[in-house]
Amino acid sequence: MLAIVLTLLLGLLPSAPTATPVACSSAVLPDSLRRAATDSLVSVQCPGYPTLRVASVLFVGNNVTKEPVLRAELDFQEGDTLRAATFGKRLEANRRRVFNLQLFHQVLVQAVCRDGEVTILYSVQERWYTFPVPIFSLADRNFRSWLDRSDRWQRVDYGLHLVRRNFRGRNEQLLGNVQLGFNRKYEVFYEAPGYGRRRRVGLGAGLSYYRSHSLDYATVRDRLVNLRQENDFPIERQYASLGLRWRRTVQHLTALDVSYHREQVSDSVLYYNPSYYLHGARREYLELGLVSTLNQRNTFAYPLTGQYAQLALTYRTFLTPGIADILTLRGRYARYLALGGSFYYSIGTAAQVRLARSVGYADNRAFGYDVLVRGYDAYVIDGRHYGLVQQGLTYRLLDVGQLRLNGVRTTKFNTIPLVFYLNTFADVGYVRTPVPRPTNRLPNKLLASTGVALHLVTYYDWVFTLEYARTREREGGFFFRTQFPI
């Protein structure tokens, strides 16, 4: 009976919650920064109680998502006793964890108290979880060069990229790629963050086969040099991986993976770069990877407060004779601060140390791939070790709120949050390599850049960034990205 009264107080429908209860935050990103005050409704209903007993925890709106997935994120359960003075903040911290599962457009929380006992209701609005994306791309540098070829229709890539999030309603992810044509790719990946009532131990697995008519085989003047073979495949890769996951909550995850890799390049690649793999055109290796992540950011897609830390250790042992084993240690830390008003500050650091007697070209990567000093997008910097510091000052320029699409009936797509941020940034990085190629000027040199950016944050965790950056070498340009830069 109390649950019915609570639902009426909130005025919510399970499939489309729209009310804004006391001590509750909308899933629109800026609202997640509101300070959680003591729940006034609970204070009025249960005055004078220093502690409150949790009588029941209820969930509505989770038509697909299984309830144990949500309960695993909470740091309380039925029967626990919570301090009344910090009750509102405790509810908000748990709401954020549920929201950062990235399964919902919106997560709301409210509580009703009677005789020192509280009933807590979490109301969620589920997303759309299946995304089939057609693949169609040209295998040439641009449309004009493709159009000029007589065999143009044989030089296209086509296929399907399919992602199923929240598979079986258990926050599992199933991903598949089937790409045919000029470049071939066949992949399937499965990720389960956790099994069981507390969702502590999970599993990850994957299979991948890839070959391409094109390969970047060297770095000259800090730019990639590409080899294209019309009737041959200069690169072929295949691997299989299996791993365990240990998870306390969505904020703390440790992954242990072991994988088998088999790779080969054509003789033409070795002709242009004999040290691409150090020895020969083929190699096999086993790789053991351990990654631990602590993610205490307010929102994972576009964080404004909190912190993030990640440590990764990878050991690669080669089954092919004559190639030295490689030990790689990577670390990353970022801090996000609210400065007051609409201003926010972020600083992030990243570093890598790679230990081996010698490495081939394929294993000698630093900046220009997953890690970047903004503004040097046209370049790649080879090396074993690197360090990077990034800073940003952000101003919330415009919060449009929820735009409703009248012609769309489903609540999974008919409201679009739009928030614009103005950002100014500065990056500093350094790559250490023992013997750089004479034509490459960026290794063993301090790299620095500054710039301004406009960020757009919208639903399904999409972040669009338009930047103008200026480097230490007085080069500049506009760059478009699809993720939060720090």
TrEMBL record:
Key words, A-Z: Membrane, Signal
Location of the POTRA domain: 52-127
Cellular compartment(s): Membrane
InterPro entries to which the protein is assigned, alphabetical: Bac_surfAg_D15, BamA/TamA_POTRA, POTRA
Pfam families: Omp85, POTRA
Signal sequence region: 1-19
Name of this chain's protein: POTRA domain-containing protein
Source organism per UniProt: Hymenobacter glacieicola
